[in-house]
């Protein structure tokens, strides 16, 4: 399976789709860094900010005004780790960190956008937004059926200026229409919600350089995580339980998102909780109901309930 996936719970999205041995498709940023040296600069978030004319600089250069947003310039594993808001010069001086940067504190919708890029132009996109919960966790994400023409136009203009000649997938994180992160991959958490034939179109893009996807009958999709308290790694639900949840109405997939044999601290997780699994569904109520069923497969005392 040349679609290189590091998380075994996502093999299910790709293993049934033929992919030629010579066609290598990344799903993880470290692979993107290695395979695309001419474009790896996009993982420098200071350069991303500069490319859009945002006020920004490395730690050691004082911001002209506060508040500002601070984060590592490059972080390929857990992109948001080490991020914080500085509200004053004293706050900035106290939390100085080599390799970090500051930039304008942006406001507005926080959107994750997957794009198919064909010869430096945007050929397809799909937008997702999350409902924040606590300490880096999300209650769920909505993968929107609706287009966002203004955001698409901005991203297409940026790609045409900075990614000339590139063909492949890209993912952008934006706030208020400005790019805060860029990736040479797609969001593999919910790609099964993009519609029948999408993975085949993905393979064709990397094999032939052409994007062809009959993107008809779009519908909203929902990616619903289940979190536990930090501290222990439980056992996976039985295959029978997993099969039953996958067969529930409107459920597209179930991902059990941890390794039983790996220490809890070795799983990259948000500060607020340990992610046990993800239900992808085409109906929100059905996705929440499936999450409740999944929660029953784990010790009740570790579950963080998040339906409210």
Any low-confidence stretches, pLDDT <50, length ≥5?
A: none
Order of helices and strands: EEHHEEEHEEEEHEEHEHEEHE
Number of contiguous helices: 7
Helical amount = 10-25%
Would you report the number of β strands? 15
How much β-strand is present in the residues?
Answer: 25-35%
Oligomer category: single chain
Query: Pairing-aware structural class of the strands and helices?
Result: alpha+beta
* Biggest β-sheet strands, sense, barrel: 9 strands, antiparallel
Mean pLDDT: 95
Give the overall shape. Answer: globular
Radius of gyration (Å) = 20 Å
Distance between the termini: 40 Å
In a nutshell, what does this entry contain?
This protein is of the alpha+beta class and 308 residues long. The chain has seven helices and 15 strands. The strands form three sheets. Strands 7, 8, 9, 10, 11, 12, 13, 14 and 15 form a nine-stranded antiparallel β-sheet that branches.
Helix and strand topology:
Blueprint: E1 3-4, E2 25-26, H1 29-35, H2 45-50, E3 56-58, E4 68-72, E5 84-86, H3 89-94, E6 100-104, E7 110-118, E8 121-132, E9 138-143, H4 149-162, E10 168-175, E11 178-183, H5 198-208, E12 221-228, H6 239-246, E13 251-256, E14 274-281, H7 284-295, E15 303-304
Parallel strand pairs: 1-2
Antiparallel strand pairs: 3-6, 4-5, 4-6, 7-8, 7-10, 8-9, 9-12, 10-11, 12-14, 12-15, 13-14
């Amino acid at each position: 399976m040349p679609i290189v996936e590091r998380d075994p719970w996502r093999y299910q999205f790709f293993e049934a789709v033929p992919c030629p041995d010579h066609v290598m498709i990344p799903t993880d940023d470290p692979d993107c860094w290695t395979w695309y040296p001419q474009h790896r600069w996009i993982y420098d978030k200071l350069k991303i900010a500069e490319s859009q004319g945002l006020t920004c600089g490395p730690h050691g250069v004082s911001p002209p005004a506060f508040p500002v947003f601070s984060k590592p310039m490059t972080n390929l594993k857990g992109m948001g780790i080490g991020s914080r808001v500085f509200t004053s010069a004293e706050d900035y001086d106290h939390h100085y960190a080599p390799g970090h940067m500051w930039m304008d504190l942006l406001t507005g919708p926080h959107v994750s956008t997957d794009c198919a890029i064909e010869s430096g132009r945007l050929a397809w996109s799909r937008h997702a937004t999350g409902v924040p919960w606590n300490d880096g966790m999300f209650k769920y994400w909505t993968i929107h059926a609706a287009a966002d023409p203004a955001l698409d136009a901005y991203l297409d203009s940026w790609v045409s200026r900075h990614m000339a000649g590139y063909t492949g997938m890209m993912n952008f994180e934006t706030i208020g229409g400005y790019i805060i992160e860029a990736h040479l991959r797609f969001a593999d958490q919910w790609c099964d919600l993009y519609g029948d034939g999408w993975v085949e179109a993905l393979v064709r893009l990397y094999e032939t350089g052409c994007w062809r996807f009959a993107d008809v009958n779009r519908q909203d999709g929902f990616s619903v995580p289940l979190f536990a308290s930090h501290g222990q790694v439980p056992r996976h639900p039985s295959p029978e339980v997993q099969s039953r949840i996958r067969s529930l109405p409107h459920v597209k997939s179930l991902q059990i998102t941890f390794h039983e044999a790996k220490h809890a601290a070795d799983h990259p997780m948000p500060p607020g909780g340990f992610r046990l699994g993800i239900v992808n569904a085409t109906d929100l109520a059905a996705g929440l109901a499936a999450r409740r069923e999944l929660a029953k497969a784990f010790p009740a005392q570790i579950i963080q309930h998040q339906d409210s």
